[in-house]
Amino acid sequence: MNTSNLDPSPDFLREFGETRGYLLGRPTRAVLTPAADTVVFLRSSGRSSEHELCELDIGSGRCRLLVRPADLMAGATEEISPEEQARRERQRITDKGFTAFSLSPDGASVLLAFGGRLFLIARATGAARALTRADAAAPLDPRFSPDGRRVAFVRAGNVHVLELEGSGLSEPRTITTGANEDRFFGLAEFVAQEEMGREGGLFWAPDGTRLAYTEVDQRGVERFQIADPARPDRAPQSFAYPRAGKTNARVRLVIGSATGTSRPVVIDWDRERYPYLARVLWDAAGVALTILVQTRDQRELVLLEVDEATGATRAIHTEQDAEWLNLERDLPRRLPDGRLLWASEASGARTLSLLEPGGHVVRELLGADAGFLSLTHISHAAGGSFVYALAGDALTSRLLKVEIETGAVTTVLDESFDRTVQISNDGGTVLETRTGATALPETRVLVAGRSLTLPSQAVVPPFRVNLSLVRTGGDPDLHAAIIRPRAFDPERRYPVVLHVYGGPHSLMVRADERHYLLDQWIADHGVCVVAIDNRGTPRRGRGFERAIKGRFGDLPLEDQVHGLTMLGEKFPELDLGRVGVFGWSFGGYLAALAAMRRPDVFRAAVAGAPVVDWHDYDTHYTERYLDLPDRRPDAYRAASLLTHASQLACPLLLIHGTADDNVYFFHSLKLADALVRAGRPFEFLPLPRVTHQLADPIVREQVWRRVAGFLLPKLLS
To answer: Which of 660, 661, 667, 668 is catalytic?
Structure first.
């Protein structure tokens, strides 16, 4: 069947790819200035992936362009170093132009790393000053000192510090030496970037005279080579990749002088017991440097206070969990008086507590019934000290204001949307990016009783989504989304396409209409698309999330089938005799597993970039959920697609990028080999030079055409 003949929106897929899912043109990475009078942000045009630097004056509502990428390149073409490309891959960045920026502490300047150089942009005039030479190695992860007088960055694996006094170019001071392919300074290792939420390795002291930096030793880490089969004349790229059960990078933390005038101090902790450096806290004047470290099995976290003169450490707070401990992106946090904010799931739900400087709990600020999600801001205004936090459920969130000394809680924003939020230093201005089940994303400023929306240049989707967010009922009672055709006929029965992810720490069911646009295009061919969040997914409590421990091979699939069955009983338009499934990454794994283990439920499956054997995925992610391989070989065996390959009994399409450095291409090659040897027919679509993301609009369009062209004929016939 040629699905293009039935396509009710024939231009949608091309536009969907060209606009990055209708995200291009929307304000992104928006930041409030310290004075809370301006929002600085990145934005492209609706069909360009090249982001420019813009700002919105909150008082007048006027928006202006500060600088374009072309303004800094003087006619040259942007070259992206392999190190920068890898960093963008870890952060899921596919855009071009400016991808990140930093505001100076006084908000007067913007720091940009672009085209292999550092630039300082004066906000008042838009004038750009080049800080580094074009002929030097590209600077990575630049960071202002707290006083704004210096910038630290990494170049060719070593840490450098640049003085900002004066004008024009100045030669940076070299803080470290000796970097090579296996040893580098000031950057996060692979698992810290990919899995731990620690994206950097440079940390300024509050007084700006010193900085802590990581030293990463990868000599014992396995190296993978990615060759381009379409260009055999090119040498392969080499990546240090720590597979489950194998050697991780060794990480130290060092305190060095920003002026290079004192001997570096190596921070001492039991790195054999606590090999993971999870967080570094050094953001309150007069408060000691504090680090959070984690055991290899991720069942124990220890907060260590550092003697900055000697590097000695002492434990001030410890938490343990029988399964694993989640790392919080914004916690723990030090207050200026040395007290700490700490998140815990020991009660069965995420809570927020205030700790004494020595680590003892003073009080719970948000208890188990509050639905605490994340810390947003700490404000020390004239009226007292406040914590701002997001709380809610799996679909929506509200903004809370909590008085630190009394624990009094006030709701600032209600639960009608899901959101991310920034707060001004005085707590009077809120910068909110929100999504809703019947609303496209928007970023707005809330101040003094008025709302100001940041202007978007995004292309408007050609249709709205016919979405229902429901509960499956039964045990477990799961969140689900149903996307019906826009021309839905309640008297008809429709085939079902299950769009699946199913892995930990990610949600498919969201209050975000834009998230379902591709699903709506598929549904409009005459099917209902369903998404279900099984046990193991976040925002529903410790027990719900931890249920997946050791059970990749059965629990997610069991819950997805249970959810489908319950939905079929509640909604008779869902024809469960005609079900297909597709997914990417963990979703690709789960789709392939469904094709092998439940051909009684699924007629066809598309598996994009699937993890095939969990021995071949990275340490920090895999071991968190399956334990170390030598402790739980049964869990790895049950979870492997190779174990079940001979059972494949329904049509399967494998799709994988040959340049994938997250789920490497050899995963699908291993599965293809197993299926061939088992005599199981399948289809295989390799994507030359494509990574784990579908960044190229043409590739993205054609992949989804192939997905629809594979699934729909088998369900609509």
So the answer is: 660
